[in-house]
C-alpha cells in the first residue's frame, strides 16, 4: 500500500454488502493507482454480477425498516454522517488526491461540497409534505402523500468521486430509500471511505451497499434488470446514459441522468474583462478541465477578442502542473493515458483545420497523463473541439459578432447542461439567458454549483435535478388516498 495511505483508517479495500466488508467472490482484485505517478496505491475487491445481486437483496431487505424510520431519525443520522466527514476532511482529501490526481486544495473543496449535500438533505428529510385536495363529490376527501420509491442504484464517475456519490446517497436516504452504489473503478477509495463513515454515523446494515468492479456492463445489467431496483441515478457519459435508460425500460424504472456537457461561455464586448477572465479560468481549467459543466467552448465577441486571448494567456502561464500533493501544484494529471491521448487528438484536429496555438498544445514532460494547459485561437465550428466534450485543459476560442450569432453558436450542440455569459447589459442578460437551451445558466459567474441549486441539464445532457428543494422529487412516489363514505 502507498506510504501516504497505509496509516489511514479510512482506506477500505473491500466492498460493503449488508453491513459487512467483503472480498470479491473469486478473490479478484483491481489496481487503484496514482495518476500523477503511475504508482500502485492499493488493490481493491473486483466484484461482479453475483455480488451485485446480493447487494440488491440486502438493500431490498433493509428497505422496510429504513423507510419506516422517522424523518427526524433519518435526519439525525445524516447530520452525524456530515459531522464525521467534516471531521475527517483532510484525510478524505488526501485519499481523493491520491487516486484522482486533482490538487489537494481542490480535493478539500470537493469533500466539503459533497458533505454539504448530506447536511442539506438531512434538513429536507423533515420537509416531505403532502396535500389535501378538495373533492368534487360530497362525502369524499382526497389526500396526497409521498413515499420513498424503494431501492435505488447509483452509478458515479471518477472526476468527482466523493461529491457525486454524496449527492445521490443523501437524498435517497433522506427520502427513506436504500441504495446500491457502483463507484468508478478508477477511484473507489473515496466512495468506500464514505461508506465506512456512514456506518459509524449509524446507518443500518443494508441501507448503503458498495459494489466496486471493473466489469461495468455486468454490474450495470444486474442493477437495471432487477425488479427490486426502482430507480437508477447515473452521472457519466451520454452514450452510457442512453444504454442504461434503454435497459431500465423493461422494468419501467425511474431514471435520473446527469450526462455529457458542451458548455459555452459567452464573453460580450461590454463584459467586465477581469471578471470574465477569472470566470473562464475557474470554469475551463478546474480539475484540469475534467468537469461536466466546465466551459468547453469560449465564444468571444470581436471587439475584445484579441485582448481577451492575451489576458487569458498571461493567466494560464502562471499554472503549475504536478502531483496534487505538492503545495505548488495548481493543476494535476488527467485520469488515464487514454484520456490524455484523446485530448491531444482533439487539439491536433483543430490545428490541422487552422486553429492557432497560443500556449500549450502538446503533452507535458511531467508524465504520460499530463497535458499542457492549452489555448487555441481562431477555432471554428467544424472542429472536434466545438462538437465534442474535451474533458481536458484546452480552451478553444471562437469569435462572434452579434448576439444572434452567439445564441446560435451556443445552441449548436445536442448537449444542454450548463452555459455562462458575461455582460453588463441587463436586457441582454435576460434575452440570452432565456434563448440558450441549457439547464443551468451562470451570468457573470461560473462557480454556480451548490447544494441549494437544482443541478441538471436538458436535451442529451440528461433528466432530473440533484440538490435544492427539488432534489427529493426523484426519490419519492406521489400517492393518492381517496376517502369515501364520509
Automatic annotation (TrEMBL):
<comment type="similarity">
    <text>Belongs to the aldehyde dehydrogenase family.</text>
</comment>
<dbReference type="InterPro" id="IPR010102">
    <property type="entry name" value="Succ_semiAld_DH"/>
</dbReference>
<dbReference type="InterPro" id="IPR016162">
    <property type="entry name" value="Ald_DH_N"/>
</dbReference>
<dbReference type="GO" id="GO:0016491">
    <property type="term" value="F:oxidoreductase activity"/>
</dbReference>
<keyword id="KW-0560">Oxidoreductase</keyword>
<feature type="domain" description="Aldehyde dehydrogenase">
    <location>
        <begin position="21"/>
        <end position="480"/>
    </location>
</feature>
<protein>
    <submittedName>
        <fullName>NAD-dependent succinate-semialdehyde dehydrogenase</fullName>
        <ecNumber>1.2.1.-</ecNumber>
    </submittedName>
</protein>
<dbReference type="InterPro" id="IPR029510">
    <property type="entry name" value="Ald_DH_CS_GLU"/>
</dbReference>
<dbReference type="Pfam" id="PF00171">
    <property type="entry name" value="Aldedh"/>
</dbReference>
<dbReference type="InterPro" id="IPR016163">
    <property type="entry name" value="Ald_DH_C"/>
</dbReference>
<dbReference type="InterPro" id="IPR016161">
    <property type="entry name" value="Ald_DH/histidinol_DH"/>
</dbReference>
<dbReference type="InterPro" id="IPR016160">
    <property type="entry name" value="Ald_DH_CS_CYS"/>
</dbReference>
<feature type="active site">
    <location>
        <position position="258"/>
    </location>
</feature>
<dbReference type="InterPro" id="IPR015590">
    <property type="entry name" value="Aldehyde_DH_dom"/>
</dbReference>
<dbReference type="InterPro" id="IPR050740">
    <property type="entry name" value="Aldehyde_DH_Superfamily"/>
</dbReference>
Amino acid at each position: 500500500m502507498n506510504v501516504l495511505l497505509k496509516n489511514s483508517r479510512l482506506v477500505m479495500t473491500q466492498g460493503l454488502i449488508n453491513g459487512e466488508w467483503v472480498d470479491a467472490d473469486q478473490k479478484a482484485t483491481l489496481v487503484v493507482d496514482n495518476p500523477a505517478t503511475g504508482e500502485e496505491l492499493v488493490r481493491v475487491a473486483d466484484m461482479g454480477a453475483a455480488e451485485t445481486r446480493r447487494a440488491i437483496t440486502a438493500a431490498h431487505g433493509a428497505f422496510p425498516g429504513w423507510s419506516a424510520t422517522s424523518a427526524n431519525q433519518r435526519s439525525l443520522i445524516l447530520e452525524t454522517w456530515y459531522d464525521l466527514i467534516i471531521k475527517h476532511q483532510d484525510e478524505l482529501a488526501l485519499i481523493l488526491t491520491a487516486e484522482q490526481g486533482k490538487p489537494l486544495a481542490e480535493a478539500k473543496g470537493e469533500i466539503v461540497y459533497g458533505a454539504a449535500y448530506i447536511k442539506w438533505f438531512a434538513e429536507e428529510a423533515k420537509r416531505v409534505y403532502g396535500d389535501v385536495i378538495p373533492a368534487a363529490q360530497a362525502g369524499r376527501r382526497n389526500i396526497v402523500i409521498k413515499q420513498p420509491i424503494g431501492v435505488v442504484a447509483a452509478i458515479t464517475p471518477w472526476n468527482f468521486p466523493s461529491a457525486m456519490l454524496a449527492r445521490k446517497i443523501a437524498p435517497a436516504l433522506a427520502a427513506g430509500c436504500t441504495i446500491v452504489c457502483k463507484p468508478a473503478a478508477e477511484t473507489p477509495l473515496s466512495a468506500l471511505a464514505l461508506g465506512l463513515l456512514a456506518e459509524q454515523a449509524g446507518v443500518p446494515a443494508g441501507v448503503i451497499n458498495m459494489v466496486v468492479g471493473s466489469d461495468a456492463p455486468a454490474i450495470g445489467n444486474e442493477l437495471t434488470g432487477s425488479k427490486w431496483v426502482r430507480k437508477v441515478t447515473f452521472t457519466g457519459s451520454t452514450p452510457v446514459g442512453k444504454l442504461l435508460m434503454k435497459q431500465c425500460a423493461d422494468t419501467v424504472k425511474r431514471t435520473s441522468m446527469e450526462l455529457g456537457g458542451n458548455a459555452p461561455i459567452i464573453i460580450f464586448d461590454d463584459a467586465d474583462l477581469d471578471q470574465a477572465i477569472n470566470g473562464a479560468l475557474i470554469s475551463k481549467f478546474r480539475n484540469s478541465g475534467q468537469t461536466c459543466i466546465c466551459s468547453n467552448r469560449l465564444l468571444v465577441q470581436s471587439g475584445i477578442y484579441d485582448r481577451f486571448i492575451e489576458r487569458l494567456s498571461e493567466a494560464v502561464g502562471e499554472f503549475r502542473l504536478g502531483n496534487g500533493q505538492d503545495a505548488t501544484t495548481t493543476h494535476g494529471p488527467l485520469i488515464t493515458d487514454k484520456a490524455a491521448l484523446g485530448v491531444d487528438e482533439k487539439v491536433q484536429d483543430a490545428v490541422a483545420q487552422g486553429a492557432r496555438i497560443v500556449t500549450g498544445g502538446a503533452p507535458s514532460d511531467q508524465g504520460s497523463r499530463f497535458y499542457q494547459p492549452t489555448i487555441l485561437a481562431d477555432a471554428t465550428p467544424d472542429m472536434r473541439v466545438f462538437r465534442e466534450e474535451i474533458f481536458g485543459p484546452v480552451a478553444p476560442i471562437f469569435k462572434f459578432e452579434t448576439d444572434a450569432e452567439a445564441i446560435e453558436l451556443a445552441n449548436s450542440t445536442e448537449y444542454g447542461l450548463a452555459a455562462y455569459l458575461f455582460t453588463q447589459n441587463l436586457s441582454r442578460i435576460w434575452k440570452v439567458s432565456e434563448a440558450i437551451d441549457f439547464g443551468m445558466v451562470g451570468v457573470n459567474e461560473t462557480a454556480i454549483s451548490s447544494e441549494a441549486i437544482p443541478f441538471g441539464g436538458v436535451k442529451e445532457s440528461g433528466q432530473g435535478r440533484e440538490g435544492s428543494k427539488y432534489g427529493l422529487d426523484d426519490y419519492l412516489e406521489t400517492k393518492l388516498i381517496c376517502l369515501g363514505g364520509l
